[in-house]
Design brief:
globular; TAT_signal; Copper oxidase; Immunoglobulin-like; six-stranded mixed beta sheet
């Protein structure tokens, strides 16, 4: 509707050490101070042929400023709320002290319009992270409140350039303005708020200029409300070097595609092996009925930087992460139900059994372990389970719904240890994992960070529709 791309889319466990490594991290070069002001602004999202779009952005821009520091430094961010709604800032993926996690009613009071709050914490792990509100998230993130947080390694790998790609989509009208209807029941009960205009770093992008022979490090972050991306870098051989910020054994992606659900990140190394003047599409294949060209890598006419790929290692140094001890781990289970096309006959809500129709009347679309809990701005959601400090937790999750759910844990990292009953041998530490319809998976994590933490689906409309709860460590 807004662009060629939009038209295309329209068609269609034992006990581990309890010491908290981030508490004792030695700050390098002291504090890194920033100031952020969520506020109204304008941005040319749809392209020069269309008017600017009214947005909410940190410092009035989308994406918000890139916050960069090195592993072990202390981040201090003063936030002044310049929008007419209460807000917070959540530091997605960072293992930080509970009181800095940015969850209203759980770790802090919401920041009122005109109010201020200062976040201050050491960053224990290098990697690719991002920041966003954790209050009214569907609308606040959907209007542009998000930005990258990059924690650099002490000794980064050798590349010629580094690019940060924030992947998003927007639901725009013919006037290029953001359409309302945030958190409507259709989005809550289906696959979330899927937009009609796909953007790279806050704008429709046709081409990314590259040079033959160079090596790129791409930091990919899915900041969309509900869209899942599955990017095929045609004519190239990307190597995944980190997932959700943490290093993995470098490898080619499954099926040659980088698949990221909302909240997920991937670092990849891309050797530009094309010739000057060539063009290669990056194609999104996740939704078979809506395959489209996301962007084009456009090779310039310059002489190739080198004739063969750079001969330098691409494996990142590991972060110091707690490894789950599965012997004697505490076992917990989560069953996700609800949504459209659900076989669910009823659920427990406020002490009685209700059907899906009554749930929807309260704005609730999803259940966890057969319980339906209306969402509210205070995040007063159910306590799903408790784990003693330092103990490993095995969490088995079963998705009985017809929809995908990226499940995000705050304050911790985990490993996937089984899918559909089959053991998984992976070295990835994650904070968000995608569970497919009718799929089951099991994760394990060391509960080494005390406090009450959120566990929720990062499809923001699923989150507000009841797929959000707490777990407690301590």
């Amino acid at each position: 509707m807004i662009s060629r791309r939009a038209l295309l889319l329209a068609t269609g466990a034992g006990f581990a050490a309890t010491a908290l490594p981030w508490r004792g991290v030695r700050a390098q070069e002291g504090l890194k101070r920033f100031a952020l002001r969520p506020m109204p602004g304008t941005a040319n999202i749809a392209g020069s042929a269309y008017p600017d779009t009214a947005i909410w952005g940190y410092d009035g821009q989308v994406p918000g400023p890139a916050l960069r520091l090195r592993r072990g430094q202390v981040l201090e961010v003063e936030v002044e709320n310049g929008i007419d709604r209460p807000t917070t800032v959540h530091w997605h993926g960072i293992r930080l002290p509970n009181e800095m996690d940015g969850v209203p009613g759980v770790t802090q009071d919401a920041i009122a319009p005109g109010g201020r709050f200062t976040y201050r914490f050491a960053v224990p792990d290098a990697g690719t992270y991002w920041y966003h509100p954790h209050l009214g998230s569907s609308e606040q993130i959907g209007r542009g409140l998000y930005g990258p947080l990059i924690v650099e390694e002490e000794e980064p790998i050798q590349v010629d350039r580094e690019l940060v790609w924030l992947l998003d989509d927007w639901r725009l009208g013919r006037d290029a303005q953001i359409l309302g209807g945030f958190d409507d029941l259709h989005d809550k009960t289906h696959d979330g708020r899927i937009g009609n205009t796909v953007t790279l770093n806050g704008k429709v992008t046709e081409t990314v200029p590259v040079r033959a022979g160079e090596r790129l490090r791409l930091r990919l972050v899915n900041v969309a409300n509900g869209r899942i991306f599955s990017l095929d870098f045609q004519g190239h051989r990307p190597q995944v070097i980190a997932l959700d910020g943490h290093p993995v054994t470098p490898h080619a992606p499954k099926d040659g595609r980088i698949t990221l659900a909302p909240g997920m990140r991937a670092d990849i190394v891309l050797d530009l092996e094309g010739r000057p003047g060539e063009r290669f599409d990056v194609v999104d294949h996740f939704y078979p009925q809506f395959v489209y060209r996301f962007v084009t890598l456009a090779y310039g006419a310059e002489t190739p930087l080198r004739d063969s790929p750079l001969d330098a290692p691409i494996r990142l140094a590991a972060n110091d992460l707690p490894v789950p001890d599965l012997d004697g781990a505490q076992q917990e289970n989560l069953l996700f139900g609800g949504g459209m096309m659900s076989p669910m006959a009823g659920a427990r809500m406020a002490g009685r059994t209700v059907d899906l129709r009554e749930m929807l009347g309260h704005g609730v679309a999803w259940t966890m372990n057969g319980e339906a809990h209306p969402a509210n701005e205070g995040h007063h959601h159910p306590m799903l389970f408790r784990v003693p400090l330092g103990r490993t937790c095995r969490l088995a999750m079963t998705n009985e719904t017809a929809w995908y759910h990226p499940i995000h844990l705050h304050g911790h990292v985990f490993r996937v240890i089984a899918r559909n009953g089959r053991k998984v041998e992976e070295d990835a530490f994650l904070d968000t994992v995608l569970i497919a319809p009718r799929e089951s998976l099991e994760i394990a994590f060391v509960a080494d960070n005390p406090g009450r933490w959120m566990l929720h689906c990062h499809v923001l409309e699923h989150q507000s529709g009841g797929m959000m709860g707490l777990f407690e460590v301590g």
